Amino acid sequence: MTGQPKRYCVIGAGSSGICSAKTILDAGGNVTIYERTDQIGGTWVYTDEVGNDRYGLPVHTSMYEGLKTNLPKEIMGFPGYEMPAQPASYVPWHEVLQFIRDYSAHYDVTRRIAFEHLVEEVRPASDGTDGWSVTVRQLASGLRTTERFDFVLVCNGHYHTPVIPTYPGGECFLGKQLHSHDYRKSDIFRDQLVLVIGAGPSGTDLTLEAAKMAKTVYFSHHVPEKLKQLTFPPNVLQVPDVLRILPECVEFVDGSQHPVSVIFYCTGYRYSFPFLHPDCGVQVDDNWVRPLYKHVLNINHPTMAFIGLPFYVCATLMFELQARFCVTFYGGRLSMPDRADMVSDHDREMNGRWSKGLKKRQAHMMGAEYQGEYYQSLAHRAQIEPIPKVMTDMHIDSGRRKKEDLQNYRNDVYRIVDENTFVKYDISEVVCASNELTVESHSS
């Protein structure tokens, strides 16, 4: 880069924002990270707070006390900076949080973060350039400032704005209703009759959480294969979709009724970017953020990027790959893609998804079918190093194991052999081997 370093605005200091900032610094850019809370970590931060924080803003994090990762730590690091070695592959949330903070400090990112700064508006600059006008409010003082940036990377995550369905009679229910966003500790389920609605990753994990304390858990969903594949504790009963809610019970679409004292919505989140001015040219339609080139670049204003929208992915590795993809063009190593090419690529991919019966809310879904090809397409287009195949393979294997053995899959231990190969053990084998080595070293 020549002349003055380009100015980058990163919105959010979670794992996607931190690794994006590190990538920008590596390329010689000047970066400011705006973070609305007082600490690094995004969704990995735990707080007992629910509802609104001390500034009257909705609490951002959805972290609960007993969470363990649902992916092996071996695919949760960054290139050149892996999570610390230990016997287990599935680790508690606080270890991931510490890892992100250590990563930020190691690469001198932390001092670039403006904490407790709320981004209120992002709009194209009025000077006729491709730059951006970003207005932020310092929460403690209320002071508003507007800064001009050459590039904006939106890294605010997508597990913060809950989707709560409505059912006939819901307003008359006499028990407790809450969304997983506001769940913190399992004590609230002690001796309760709990209805869990939703069969995504949080729904299955939180059904297990509720079952530890509840008398009975009713797991409601409309995914038939779940009935065949998932094995729950004996106090969990799988039931179909909710038809209506009565004051003290719930009726399901098969006509059955069950008494319920807690309704627990594990029904996902809405992608939300309230700070984007309409002139940014981005629309969100049932969680389909468009128009984006390769799920990242704003086709209408490609100096804006979104990091981390795709789901069912090797998340941190994908964040880092997407950031390198952006900086390749923003830093000038390659020319920005032609608009017509971006539109053609976008339309081709989306039409392929629609032809397979996917819905708008699945526009950014990857998983076993799409993620490997997606990582390769980013790397190929930007002429950068891809994510090693072994990472995708471990991700797919982990998902398969969760379906096979929901209660015990976190006992699996993964070890990487090379870029194409991994091995897998049970945690008891690893601990036993570690103990034997310890005894041998003490006796020698």
Automatic annotation (TrEMBL):
Cofactor(s) the record lists: FAD
Keyword Flavoprotein: yes
Record keywords, A-Z: FAD, Flavoprotein, Monooxygenase, NADP, Oxidoreductase
Major enzyme class: oxidoreductase
Superkingdom per UniProt: Eukaryota
GO MF annotation, one: flavin adenine dinucleotide binding
InterPro entries with a match to the protein in the record: FAD/NAD-bd_sf (IPR036188), Flavin_mOase (IPR000960), Flavin_mOase-like (IPR020946), FMO-like (IPR050346)
Enzyme Commission number(s) of this protein: 1.-.-.-
Magnesium keyword on record: no
Family per similarity comment: Belongs to the FMO family.
Protein name in the entry: Flavin-containing monooxygenase
Organism, as annotated: Anopheles coluzzii (African malaria mosquito)
